[in-house]
Amino acid sequence: MIGNDIVDLQVAQKESNWNRPRFLQKVFTTEEREYIDTAPDKDKAVWLLWSKKESAYKIIVRHLQKRFFAPKELINTIDTTDSQDYQSKHLGLVTFGKFLIHTRSTITNSYIHTVAQEHSDFTNLNVDCFSIDKNEYPAQHQTTHHRVIQHYSIMTQSSANFRIKKSALKVPSLYAGDTKLKVQISTSHHGNYGGFALESTSLK
Predict the structure, then answer these.
(1) What share of the chain is helix, strand, coil (3-state, %, to 5)?
(2) CB–CB of 197/155 below 8 Å?
(3) Tens-digit pLDDT profile for residues 130-140
(4) Residue 93 three-state SS
(5) pLDDT for 162 beyond 60
(6) Rg of the chain's alpha carbons, rounded to an integer?
(7) Nearest to 117 by CA among 127, 129, 128, 132
(8) 171 near 111, Cβ under 8 Å?
(9) For the chain, does the N or the C end have fewer beta carbons within 10 angstroms?
(10) According to the model, what pLDDT value does residue 22 have?
(11) For the residues of 183-204, what is the DSSP string, one character each?
(12) Using CA atoms, how far apart are residues 148 and 150, in angstroms rounded to an integer?
């Protein structure tokens, strides 16, 4: 199972006033709030923890086959040795009941992109994040789907008519015509950025 989430930091800063006690208390555990309070860059700390929860949430939805809102039950393991310099890759763990989700976040001054899976080896996961010209849903949706299909076509050296279809739970699947492929994908977009994670169990 895989998940991913992306946060456009400039858009998040404009559209989300996270610095409200009710918001922080509703979304983050006491330990997570302490991590934010001591962070040199509180904006990045908030959205890093959020993106890790969101990417893990997408995996839990696949397992439970239902959507829910319980952000404080998706718990980030806080590493007290973390330097919080927020450079390059950031590895983490999110727990939800019996589930243990591994995360890897790419942190820049423009966006935070997190991918998640149930094991710690990310080498076989195909990941990409990219800019989107317009901060509008049609452009975000179209660009993200196009990038996934383009990547998979190149990876498989296939010119098949690939398309992405979402289930009632909004879980995306990749199809060749009307045939659902044995490949897991996770898509995300926010503001002027999009991202995906792709793990193939079969390239045929």
Answers:
(1) 35, 35, 30
(2) no
(3) 999 999 999 99
(4) strand
(5) yes
(6) 17
(7) 127
(8) no
(9) C
(10) 87
(11) EEEEEEEETTEEEEEEEES---
(12) 5
**DSSP string covering 42-67:** HHHHHHHHHHHHHHHHHHHHHHHTS-
Residue type, 1: M
| Bridge partners, residue 61, by sequence | none
28-67 residue pLDDT tens: 999 999 999 999 999 999 999 999 999 999 999 999 999 9
Query: 83 falls in which pLDDT band (50, 70, 90)?
Result: low
* Residue appearing with tokens 């995360």: 103
What is the spatial distance between Cα 195 and Cα 79, in angstroms, rounded to a whole number? Answer: 26
- Are 8 and 111 within 8 A, CB to CB? yes
∠ Cα 48 75 187 (to 5°): 50
- Token digits of residue 32: 């997570």
Domains plus CATH for the chain?
2-122 (3.90.470.20), 130-200 (no CATH)
Q: Nearest-CA neighbor of 61 among 189, 172, 158?
A: 172
Buried b (16+ CB within 10 A) or exposed e, 173-193: ebeeeeeebebbbbbbbbbbb
With contact defined as beta carbons under 8 Å apart, do 24 and 84 qualify?
Answer: no
Q: Is the CB of residue 49 less than 8 Å from the CB of residue 36?
A: yes
Residue 171 has pLDDT above 90, yes or no: yes
pLDDT band at residue 204 using 50, 70 and 90 as cut-offs: very low
Give the pTM: 0.93
